[in-house]
Design goal:
Layout: E1 2-10, H1 16-26, H2 29-32, E2 36-43, E3 54-60, H3 63-71, H4 73-83, E4 87-96
Helix pairs in contact: 1-4
Length: 98
């Protein structure tokens, strides 16, 4: 099993509507992509200063399944049209889980 974790930090000028659009769009991916085994997204609660703004955690049966998700046209569109315009920083990791 492969776990994919992404932390997104949005620019200070990102509006709630823009972040909601990201959340809404990303939430459609699991129903479109059977390769996604588990998918959890969410906004930071603001408890600790300096945290990222948003997180994505997704599980896949294999690296090949992750790559299908990574390269999916709708996923790429969401990144290009909704995330990139408000993105200040991104970090990600993919690792094996048992």
């Amino acid at each position: 099993m492969i776990r994919h974790i992404v932390l997104l930090s949005f620019v200070e000028t990102a509006t709630d509507a823009q972040v909601q659009a990201v959340e809404d769009a990303l939430s459609t991916l699991p129903s479109r992509l059977p390769q996604v085994r588990a998918y959890v997204i969410g906004r930071d609660l603001g408890v600790n200063e300096g945290n990222a703004s948003f997180a994505v955690a997704a599980d896949f049966a294999s690296i090949d399944d992750y790559i299908v998700y990574r390269d999916d046209a709708e996923h790429r569109r969401i990144i290009a049209e909704l995330i990139s315009p408000i993105l200040a920083a991104r970090t990600a990791v993919q690792y094996e889980i048992s």
